[in-house]
Structures are given as structure tokens and as C-alpha cells.
Amino acid sequence: MLPLMTQTGLKGRERAFDRLCHRLVGSGRLSVRYPSGAVREYGDGSGDAARFHIRRPQALVRIALNPEFALGEAWMEGDITLEHGDLGDALTQLLKAGGAGRAGGMAGWLRALRRLRRRLDQFNPAGRARRNVAHHYDLDDGLFDLVLDADKQYSCAYFEHEGMGLEAAQAAKKNHIAGKLCLQDGQRVLDIGCGWGGMALTLARQANVSVLGVTLSQRQLDVARQRAEAAGLSGRVRFELVDYRALEGRFDRIVSVGMFEHVGIDHYREFFETVRGRLAPGGIALIHSIGRMDGPGYTNPWLAKYIFPGGYIPALSETLPHVERAGLLTGDIEVLRLHYARTLQAWRRRSQASRERIEALYDRRFFRMWEFYLASSEAAFRSGQMMVFQLQLLADLEAAPLTRDYMYTPAARQAEDRRAA
Amino acid sequence: MLPLMTQTGLKGRERAFDRLCHRLVGSGRLSVRYPSGAVREYGDGSGDAARFHIRRPQALVRIALNPEFALGEAWMEGDITLEHGDLGDALTQLLKAGGAGRAGGMAGWLRALRRLRRRLDQFNPAGRARRNVAHHYDLDDGLFDLVLDADKQYSCAYFEHEGMGLEAAQAAKKNHIAGKLCLQDGQRVLDIGCGWGGMALTLARQANVSVLGVTLSQRQLDVARQRAEAAGLSGRVRFELVDYRALEGRFDRIVSVGMFEHVGIDHYREFFETVRGRLAPGGIALIHSIGRMDGPGYTNPWLAKYIFPGGYIPALSETLPHVERAGLLTGDIEVLRLHYARTLQAWRRRSQASRERIEALYDRRFFRMWEFYLASSEAAFRSGQMMVFQLQLLADLEAAPLTRDYMYTPAARQAEDRRAA
After folding, report:
1. Angle B364-382/B87-96 helices, nearest 10 degrees?
2. CA dihedral sign of residues B180, B184, B189, B194
3. In this complex, is the C-beta atom of A163 within 8 Å of any C-beta atom belonging to chain B?
4. Domains of chain A
5. Could you tell me if B160 lies within 8 Å of chain A, comparing CB atoms?
6. pTM (2 d.p.)
7. Residue-wise pLDDT tens digits, B18-50
8. Which ipTM score applies to this complex?
9. Which of residues 324-363 of A touch B (CB under 8 A)?
10. Among A335, A402, A404, whose Cβ lies nearest the Cβ of B330?
11. Rounded mean pLDDT of chain A?
């Protein structure tokens, strides 16, 4: 009970919201300035207090009824702002306190409704998958140029050493994945969801392999092709605008980074059967995806509407049944915990530094949406709700070495070992 | 169609068995000498042909009706022997050919019956758990002394380097697990299913920690206590005859090697909730268990009767839901594929070398049972049906380092890093 609490009385709707906050924010420390000007503090007083300012009484009702959706919208509209503190910190506190997280504060019927919607949302036939991808990945390249690293890696980096910056950590991510693929000269590699081509080009540089990268984003395709051309690798690295389910033939290696999140749970069987079907004898696949640490859930409705329609973040327990049924052998499962939080923090810092240019490309509302997306995602990783998993899958028992030592041996040494063998 | 096939005609029951073998053994190469003396070959002719000799017509019927159970019993009774080839090789071929494996060749009603039985078999209240453990682990120590390594590690070894022997590979296993536990001086460690104490003593030697090892086997307890005494570690390493579910208090580290296989699927929730409950903040648990590579299955009925009553080998997809629900964070999942095949091969070789002494301890039938257990288990790993997983579980996000580098840094170097930190 801080002295602030008695400075001003709360108005009608504010009192209901205040009760809700007391119920939801059990730990941590969070303060709210109400539309009337009154300020209240919540939590057990531990940690730094961020203070939200809720500027419009209507936002109180919307947030109370459906916090996971309405908080993001209110932020976009400027109906809620931050008086002090960092948005990532504040949202992490909320999630840790169990607020907007699992309990969610919404009525039971809303949850039931959402579970029904979960299935519909994830209905991803080829045509819709393409529209869903265009929604996000065809955003003006200028945005991604400003926010991402120079190679445009739009997925979790690997902070291999303390103090690593984003550029180095994205390079480390590509090397780490390449290491798990045990590339050998002459192999055929498939990159499902190749983005702007950075991973495919890295693999082609590390070994004399031919790579096919597929994406559903026309803009990504154009950039990836230009880059292959510029790197003098277009003879070995091809990019196509095609749904991975339409591919034929066999590949010695399959890599898919940050694409599985868009597959949708109803399509997991199809996904892993396709991977199994495209994988040659002795083959290795590496699936890098965000995962839900705390078991099956549902897609945050704000994220589903504004950022990733059709997406779903799976728990490992939802993913592995399909791996096993498809007849793929699980070679290794790495769980990267806080790496994506750091990645998102770096992206948000870069976004803030280029705020004016991003607002000029779009508008202020877009920037606030973008900022909320990065901050709330960061909070999901920092609170332990989300992680990233790297699933190494084998076509047969002898496809990969017996121990994981090779993943922790520098690439140069590995290449030497291969030459010696 | 080899010339042998026409040498002698098959008798009544033999013809039915012959048709079954043709249907089941699609690949590989296997030959059978029938009770009548007739010899037939099956498979596509690839690989070495092992030849079983079925000596009694009654065995034909039993094996045809319930191969997973009756093959083991017929072997124990000497009703089926091997004319040439290795039992492990022969059973691996059978499993790979899809024979005694999943399809099983038994009628549909037998499978349904078994699924029902799966639940009953795994009903493991504390009293029964104790009887189940005594069934196997109270076997005369002389047997395990003859078969296992000097430290009596009765679980999968870790063949870290090519050409490693069993002794070195068991030491490497203990070090590998110790590395994943990130031990720090002063910590409290719990070893669930401590066997003859080798892991507990290793951990106590690697760091100044106190260890409590629990087992349900009186013989294991006696040996473990003697060893702690002899090593001068009884001040820091205690052993108790107690069910892990009866424990109280918190531990910084929990390790469980080769015990989860005995828990039974109906008790997984209880198992992981207990681990969560016993784990202190910042805690790490490491569960090392055999896993089923190809998804949920059932316990081989012969193994359940003669070797491990109450046991069940889980698929990862059956294990992880309970990890997630218990609120444990998955830190890492390593899958060891062929390591247990090598371990079992070494145990079988040692058993063969001590055949006379083992038969003197028990009898010939016991030796044949023991031999079939080791060979059929080896086959399950070599055919890719089984693997071993090491599940590293965290009490919170920061319990373990951000990358897995520490697991691949020699212990000496790690100790140095800790001192420097």
C-alpha cells in the first residue's frame, strides 16, 4: 500500500479494473495511471515498477474483457502508453505475474471460443498459406533492412558467447545449424522457408552442395535471387516461389528455420510426412522453430490478427507424435531459452533508433504495432512461456555421428576431419 | 528360392509356419531348420543368414500365435537354438524385417488384449514397485559382477570415442551426466534409483556435494553403503531403501539413470510432479531412460514376465506432456542411438565368457533367458526401435548456461572456470 494509492479516487469502470489488477498481478511490481489521473500500484513490490498510462476509459473495458487482444490494440491506438520503464520489461512482469499469460483474465466462454477458433485459424491450404505469408513477409524491405542484421536473418540468433552482438550471433546461428547438418560435398539441400536466402547461401559457402530454397514471399524470392547472383553462387543455389508440399524428389539435407511456426497444428502430420518423403537415405533434417515451453496453448489473438495469421507455436509434446508417426528418427533436440529474447531486444533497439524512418515508411500506428509485437514476444521468452527448439531428424540410424561432439567442433576442424577421412 | 528348399518336404504345422515366415520376413535373410529336418530360407537374400533350428513341433504353434512371447520362452527351454550366426544379429534382422516388431504377426485380438494388459502391467503402487524391483535387481550380485563393468553401471554406456571399451564408456557416461548437472560445491543431490551407488559416488568425487541415493533393492543398498564406506565418502553420500515418492525436502540436483523405465505410463504425472516438487529454485534434473523411437507401444510380454515386471519404455511423445504439465522447463534432450546396442553387446560377450559360472549360480535355463534378454534388447536398439534419451529439466530459466558448450568442455576445464568465476 503506497501513499500514491490514496491521492485520487477511482471512477466507476476504473474500480472494476483495479480489482482485476489486484487479482491478476500477484508478484512483481506494476503501476497504472487511470484516465481520471489516479495512480495505483500492483504486485508484491519486487522489481522495478513500470507505469502504464491508460488514457481512455473505453480501453479499460476492452482490456478487462480480453487483455491478450485489447492490450495490443490499445497500444497501437495510443490509448495506453508507458510513463516510465521499458515495454519489454513491463510485459515480462505481466506474463510472469500470470496476468495476460495462461489465466488470461478473460471469462471461460472466451477461452472456449478461442479453442474453437484455434482450429479455424490454422487452416492453411496452399492458397491461404501464400496470403498469410504475404501479410508479413512482403512488408516493405526497407523495414527489415533497418531492423535485422546485414544478412537479414529473421529468426532467433545464437548468442554463443557472452557479449556477442546481433550480427555475430546471427552468423553463429547459421554455423550452428550448418554444423548439425554434417554437410558433405555433392549433397542436395532443401531450405523450406528460405527467407531472403541467407541460410541457403551460408550452406553453399560451407560445402560444395547445391541448395534449393523455397519461399511463398515474392519479395523474399527477388532479394534471395539477386543475392545468389551477386555472390556468384546462382549455379548452385536456386530459389523458387513454391509451396514445400508441391516439391518432388529427394534431398540429402533439409533445413527449415522459422517456418514451422506458420504450419498450423492440423498440418503437422503433412509437414513431417513431407520431410520424410523428401529425405534421401542417410538424410538429416533440421527444424528450427519457436516452441511453447508450458504445453499446448493457443495463438495470442492480437498476434494472429496483426502479425502472423494462420500461425501456431507448438509445444514439443504436440510436435513429437508427428515426428514418430512419420517414421523420422529424432537425432537431437536442443532447446534455446533466452536467445530469442536477446534477439528481439536487439531488433527493438534498432527499431527505436530508426523510429522516424519506419514511421515515414508506414505511419505511427504501424510503428506502435511493430514495437508491441517485438516487446510482447520478448516478454514471452523472458517469462519462460516460449523457447526455440532445434529438432534434428534422421532418415536412418547412421545418418549422424554417435555423439554430439561434432556440433561443438569448429567448422574448420570439421572440414579437416572430413578431408582426412 | 535356394536349392535347399526342395531337399525335404514340410510336415503339416511346418507348412503353416513356413507361409507365415514368407509373409513376415520381407527383407534380410533368415533360415529355419524345421523339426522334420527340412530347411527353408526367407527374406530377399541380403545380409548374412542366421539359421534357427526349431526342435519341437509344439514351438511352431506357440511362436506363430504369439511370437513376441513364445520365441523367448522357446529359446529358454532349448526348443529353438541357433545353428549358425549370432543371436543378436538374427533378432535384429527379424525386427528390421518387421517380423516380431510392430506388426508382430499375432492376431488382432491378441494386440487388443495386450493394450488392456499394458495398463494393468504398469500399475505400480509402492508395494508392488518394490516386488518388481526385487524380481530383477536382487539377483545374486555374482551375476552382475561377472557381466557389468567394475563400477556396476547397469545402464547404457556412452561410447564417446571410437574403440572405447565398456569400462571407459561407463566412466564417460557418468562424466557426461555429471557435466549436464553443472554441480557446484555445497549442493544437495538426489539420485533416484541409485543402483549399486556408482553414479552417486562419482558425483561426490567431482564436487563437494552431498548425495542421497535411493533404491528399492536391499542388495543394491547393502553394496552401495559398503562402497561409500570404503571410499571414505559415507559422510557426504547416504543411501536409503525408500520409494522416491516418499521423500521430502528440496534438492539442487536430481539424477535418475535407468529407473524411469520402471515407472509405468500411469505414473508419469506423479513422477514429474515429484521431481518438480523436490527440485529447489535454480535446480537441474537429469533423467536418463530408454525410449521408444517409433512412438507409443507396449512392453514386450516376454520381457514383462521374465525380466522387468511393471516396466514400460516410453516414447518422447508420451513423456513430454507430463514434463510440460508439471511446470518443468526442458533444458535439453539428447538422444543416444546405438550406444545401448554396444553396451548390451559387451554385456553379452562377458556373459558368454562366464557362461559356466553363471549356469553354476543359476541353471542352464536361466542362462538362456539372460542371453535372450540381452540379445533381443540389443536387436531393439540396432533396428532403431529403441534409443536412450537424456532429459535435462530445469526449475527455472537461468538454472543452466545459455548454450550446451559446457557439456562438451572437459570436467577439469569446467572446474577451473568455476574457480575463476
Report:
1. 40
2. positive
3. no
4. 12-116 (3.30.1050), 126-420 (3.40.50.150)
5. yes
6. 0.89
7. 988 888 787 778 899 999 999 999 888 776 778
8. 0.89
9. 324-325, 327, 329-339
10. A335
11. 88
